[in-house]
Specification:
Helix content: 40-55%
Order of helices and strands: EHEHEHEHEHEHEHEHEHEEHH
Largest sheet: 7 strands, mixed
Distance between the termini: 58 Å
Radius of gyration: 21 Å
Number of domains: 2
Number of helices: 11
CATH topology of the largest domain: Rossmann fold
Strand order of the largest sheet: 3-2-1-4-5-10-11
Bound molecules: 6-O-phosphono-beta-D-fructofuranose
Strand content: 15-25%
Structural class: alpha/beta
Length: 318
């Protein structure tokens, strides 16, 4: 048997750990593995190489993806998907493991409709895949954001300022939400919660009147740019307001223990699903356990906002 593996969309810490888990589990079970470079773009360009046990040595702790990644516009077309399926057939690749986010899974579903056997593994820092409690890379990104919050808090405190910290996540506020809770942010601006800037500023001023010397506002990128919020907040509070966009540091770095474990379980289970002929699914962590969910169903499961976490954060940061 021969399987292919690719990473697609934004890279995420732990993708390498997942690649390693898939390759090693496959080889252990005498299955050949081909690595497809640069996601679907590399598939279309036949940038495909055989992988062995040594190809994935010493990558468990590395951020990024050794297979590299891309976002292919041509693959999103019918002609692109058809060509992708033809390339896989020409290489004798019977099953394809796709590590990525929702866009990557839509591509996988399109391939499945062309008759390709696919398995998805959720890998994105955004944690915006509704079918999985967590995605590979999210915990590391939150840990990176948390480290930045602590550092920014030092200087914000010293100058009696407000600091708006912008984090990634597309339309999902989870990086801001989770790092905001653990970093003690005084306010959270998230796409899932209607922004009441007057209310937020009022809250910051109440804290100031009670003796708070500084405040941190976590801003999810889906709500706009930190520069605009700095102007608005400073105008309303009359407190000097600075801002920081954490940017791509959130996507890099050595994966955390949680992300490595997720990657090991999901990668191992992906190959087990192939062996058991249970493909056409996404490997997820759901309600604390691991399971496969049919791809078509998985991509329809809406992401549920953790209102409980938001409420706790609002209580703890008064
Ligand atoms: O999906 C991961 C992510 O980092 C998002 O949080 C962000 O909006 C986007 O990718 C940035 O993409 P790019 O690498 O194309 O700038």
């Amino acid at each position: 048997m021969r399987i292919g593996i690719l990473t697609s969309g934004g890279d995420a810490p732990g993708m390498n750990a997942a690649i390693r888990a898939v390759v090693r589990t496959a080889i252990f079970n005498k299955i050949e593995v081909y690595g497809i470079h640069r996601g679907y773009a590399g598939l279309l360009e036949e940038d495909i190489v055989p992988l062995n046990v040594y190809s994935v040595a010493d990558i468990l702790q590395r951020g990024g993806t050794i297979l590299r990644t891309s976002r292919s516009e041509f693959f999103a077309t019918d002609a692109g998907v058809k060509k992708g399926a033809e390339v896989l057939e020409a290489y004798g690749i019977e099953h394809l493991v796709v590590i990525g986010g929702d866009g990557s899974f839509k591509g996988a579903l399109a391939l499945q409709k062309e008759g390709v056997s696919v398995i998805g593994i959720p890998g994105t820092i955004d944690n915006d895949i509704g079918c999985s409690d967590y995605t590979i890379g999210f915990d590391t990104a939150v840990t990176t954001a948390l480290d930045a919050i602590s550092k920014i808090r030092d200087t914000t405190y010293s100058h009696n300022r407000i600091n708006v910290i912008q984090v990634m996540g597309r339309k999902c506020g989870d990086i801001a939400l989770y790092s905001g809770l653990s970093g003690g942010a005084e306010a959270l601006i998230l796409p899932e919660v209607k922004t009441d800037l007057d209310g937020i500023c009022q809250r910051l001023l109440v804290g100031k009147d009670r003796g708070k010397l500084h405040s941190i506002v976590m801003l999810a990128e889906g709500c706009g740019n930190y520069r605009d919020y700095c102007v608005e907040i400073e105008e309303r509070t009359q407190v000097t307001t600075k801002g920081t966009n954490l940017g791509y540091i959130q996507r890099g770095g050595s994966p955390s223990n949680i992300d490595r474990n997720l990657a090991c379980f999901m990668g191992y289970n992906a190959v087990q699903a192939i062996i058991k002929k249970e493909t056409g699914s996404v490997m997820v962590q759901r309600f604390g356990g691991y399971q496969g969910i049919p791809l078509e169903e998985a991509i329809q499961i809406p992401k549920v906002f953790r209102q409980d976490i938001y409420d706790i954060a609002m209580v703890l940061s008064i």
